[in-house]
Amino acid sequence: MKSDDPMRDDLPTGEMPVVRPSDPRVTIIGAEVAAEAAGIPVPTPTVDPETLLPHWTEEPTGQMPAVLKREEVVSADPLDQIPAPVWREDETDYTIHDEQFGNIIAGADITEGTEVAPVIEESVEATPEAPRAPQRRAERLRQADQKLLRHRAARTAPEKDVRKATLTGILAALVVVVIFMAGPIPVAILITAALAAAVAEVYAAFRLAGTRPATLLGVVGSIALGIGAYNRGEAALSLVTILFVFAVFAWFLSTPTKFDMLDGFGVTVMAYIWIAVAGSFAMLLISPVNFKNRHGLAFLIGAIIITVANDTGALFVGRIFGKRKLAPTISSGKTVEGFIGGMISSVIIAAIVLPHIHPWSLTGAILLAILASIVAPLGDLFESLVKRTLGVKDMGEVLPGHGGVLDRIDGLLFVLPLTYYLVHILNIG
Question: Judging by beta carbons within 10 Å of its beta carbon (0-12, 13-18, 19+), is residue 124 exposed, middle or buried?
Fold first, then answer.
């Protein structure tokens, strides 16, 4: 408290002024000090000068006011022990907070009256943030395996109708016979169309699974390979294939957006080799460069007959007697009994039918039937492995009861190279 004289520059006394109703400086109508009205003496309040702030004209002391820590209230609710929001910069800040939260939740006994020990945060020494290592492809694939069918359920199909499949198979067989009777050129057109459709089906399934194949380039490359194989023979395989690989590489180099090299380039080349290269051996069989006098048509029709016999025998024998799974992790429908039934039916049909088709012999027909009975199921299992990876039931719906074109020629794609080289080894043509 200072004196009333404005000319005096004295220091504060520490006394607080008391305002009374009789004070001439303040006029309060109806105001009265309660203590005085009751006859109780009112003490004059005093203030300790040491606790007063220094005068504004004095030099600053540099001291900071102390912030006293509040007492922690122990609560029975475990969620009350979660640390308050803090500023996070380093990755360890998130890790420590998450660990504390997990420990609290894991060790909490949510019952009334339970005492929960307070969580004491340990100070973490700040460290410079290290550059994060790029995520490895193996880690991405492992994460993709955990949610395989969640994002890759592209298409589903009902159970196969045996009657519809049989009717479709008979009609397709009649069309194929008529085309084969027309000569090599119509057969070459049929093969080219079938291979192009199969490649397009595979690329469509891959796109639905999230990959980015070069579909147009793959279809064009398959057609070019078929035409080259028919006109130039085996020399066209290596030439067209290497040109295709270079073209695909240039295709993805010109892509402005980022992409996974193995998912884009890899699936494009894989489908080309699987379908176009393997299927081009059908063109090599009917090519006039390799076999004259239309003998190649007889070899190709022999491979088709044996493959169809194998699929049919495996289907019906497996449905009736199948108990032991042939490859349970890949295909639940393939059985050991079906495999044996397919081999037996292939040998029987080959021994009865093929010797009547010149220039097939009984020995060559039986040998091809035995080897094709081993190779054809491998082609079927390979497609099943791809479909299981993509999460699809069938590659397409072109053929009622059979699925797509690739679903019908998957085994034949593996039998065609076998037939071509076996004919050369046995020198049948």
Answer: exposed
CA distance 300 to 188: 11
Can you tell me the distance from the alpha carbon of 65 to that of 62, in angstroms, rounded to the nearest whole number?
10
Cβ atoms of 169 and 175 closer than 8 Å:
no
Helices (H) and strands (E) counted in the chain, each on its own, are 15, 2
| Phi-psi category of residue 14: left, alpha or beta, with phi > 0 → left and psi -120 to 50 → alpha | left
User: Is the CA virtual torsion 333, 337, 339, 342 positive or negative?
Assistant: negative
DSSP state of 15: B
The backbone region for 293, taken as left when phi is positive above 0, alpha when psi lies in -120 to 50, beta otherwise, is left
The tokens describing 178, both together, are: 């008529």
- Listed by start position, the domains of the chain span 161-426
Helix (H, G, I), strand (E, B) or coil at 151: helix
Q: What is the pLDDT of residues 10-53, one digit of tens each?
A: 566 666 555 555 555 555 555 556 666 667 776 666 666 666 67
Q: What is the pTM of this model?
A: 0.62
**Cα–Cα distance measured from residue 317 to residue 334, given in angstroms and rounded to the nearest whole number:** 11
Give the other-Cβ count within 10 Å of 299's Cβ: 28
* Rg over CA atoms, the chain: 44
CB atoms under 10 Å from CB of 41, counted, come to 6
Dihedral pair phi/psi, residue 112, rounded to 5°: -70, 135
User: Helices 278-286 and 215-232 sit at what angle, rounded to 10 degrees?
Assistant: 30
pLDDT tens sequence across 147-179: 444 444 444 444 556 677 778 778 888 888 899
Residue (of 13, 73, 68) closest to 45 by Cα position: 13
Nearest CA among 322, 375, 386, 380 for reference residue 346: 375
Q: What is the pLDDT of residue 394?
A: 73
Q: Which residues of the chain have pLDDT under 70?
A: 1-38, 42-52, 64-162, 257-259, 396-402, 429
Residues forming beta bridges with residue 331, ordered by sequence position = 327
Q: How remote is the C-alpha of 281 from its chain's centroid?
A: 33
The pair phi, psi for residue 332, each rounded to 5°, is -80, -15
